[in-house]
Write a structure and sequence with these properties.
- It is globular, with a radius of gyration of 18 Å.
- It is of the alpha/beta class and about 325 residues long.
- Strand 6 and strand 7 form a beta hairpin.
- The two termini are about 30 Å apart.
- The protein has a single domain, classed as UDP-N-acetylmuramoyl-L-alanine:D-glutamate ligase.
- The strands form two sheets. The chain has a nine-stranded mixed sheet, sandwiched between helices. It has a four-stranded mixed sheet with strand order 3-2-6-7.
- The N terminus is likely disordered.
- About 35% of the residues lie in helices and about 20% in strands.
Length: about 325
């Protein structure tokens, strides 16, 4: 590969993230809040939503980023808007037009794993100036839940001639209905994308009984140049479409506080690393990624793993900075 940028310098082209911003109401047994000393459950509210977390993660890594979302002007929506602004994330016009701000009720078990229950509505206002973005990311609820899901997919099609596309299915079974229909929509998004990050749990729900390697090979034939399958604390499987190279990247041991936002930090780190090395960003980035080898994408994978490891060591969706990554 040639014309690669050093990983340490942030690329300044703007990224658009499309998707839900909401409040994570996290209940953990006897951990935080006034009842922590009694062993009773405590609930703490964090700003969250997978795409919003990715946007904040990219901003923390010094990338200019805009979020197209759907929140209200109620107290929770104002909190989200303030959170984004304070962290350097712009909102597109119309993002605050929702009738109420969505909430994800997350329950943390004794291992730190989260399960979710949702109260939400999703629509996507028209996004102006699409040709001004060099990379577009979406995923999770926003790409599937109607009436906004169809608008998200249409926006990806419109943006694709001038921007690289990344996608994280981030499956939420409680919201996505029939796995067969969800699979149809999700694989439509996969085919529109250059980079796909998916968890092994997502694949098990979408295509039960099928081997991960077989699913990845199938998806690779449909559009993306790079597919990464995360396996929690076990590491990540990396697959390049052109060369058919596959690599398993391990995760060093880490003390888990909770897993909220870990996958989103991985996604932000991955996008950041690809942007910094010129393997994402406009048609030229798409071409470079299409010609990449494992050694080329390795630094971006390392950044993704490092970011997610730092996130699980903090409560809520912690967004590491470059300084945090440097310290380890």
């Amino acid at each position: 590969m040639t014309d690669r940028r050093p990983l340490g310098s942030a690329r300044r082209g703007r990224t658009l993230v499309i998707g839900e911003a909401l409040i994570d109401a996290v209940a953990a047994p006897g951990r935080r809040g006034d009842d922590a000393d009694t062993g009773a459950d405590a609930t703490v509210e964090h700003v969250g939503g997978s795409p919003a977390n990715v946007a904040v993660g990219l901003a923390a890594l010094d990338h200019p980023v805009t979020l197209a979302t759907w929140i209200a002007t109620d107290d929770r929506g104002t909190r989200i808007a303030d959170h984004c602004r304070e962290r350097g994330v712009e909102l597109t016009p119309g993002s605050q037009g929702a009738p109420f701000t969505s909430v994800a009720h997350a329950t943390i078990d004794g291992t730190g794993a989260a399960t979710y229950r949702f109260e939400l509505e999703w629509q996507l206002p028209a996004v102006p100036g699409l040709t001004g973005y060099e990379h577009v990311h979406t995923g999770s609820i926003a790409a599937v839940l109607e009436p906004g899901g169809g608008a998200v997919r249409d926006t990806l099609r419109t943006a694709r001639p001038t921007a690289t596309i990344s996608y994280d299915p981030n499956v939420r079974p409680a919201l996505m209905g029939d796995p067969g229909e969800a699979r149809r929509v999700i694989e439509e998004c996969v085919a529109l994308s250059d980079v796909v990050k998916v968890s092994d749990e997502d694949l098990a729900w979408l295509r039960p009984g099928e081997a991960v390697d077989d699913i990845v090979a199938d998806w690779a034939g449909g559009g993306p140049s790079l597919i990464v399958v995360t396996r929690g604390g076990q590491g990540a499987l990396v697959r390049l479409t052109r060369t058919r190279e596959t690599h398993f990247a391990p995760v060093p041991p880490v003390t888990v506080v909770d897993t909220v936002g870990a996958g989103d930090s991985f996604m932000a780190g991955l996008i950041s690393g690809l942007l910094d090395t010129g393997l994402a960003g406009g048609p030229a980035g798409r071409d470079r990624l299409g010609r990449a080898e494992l050694a080329d994408v390795g630094p971006a994978i390392d950044r993704a793993i490092a970011a997610s490891r730092l996130t699980v060591g903090h409560p809520g969706a912690h967004a590491p900075t470059r300084a945090d990554l440097a310290r380890g």
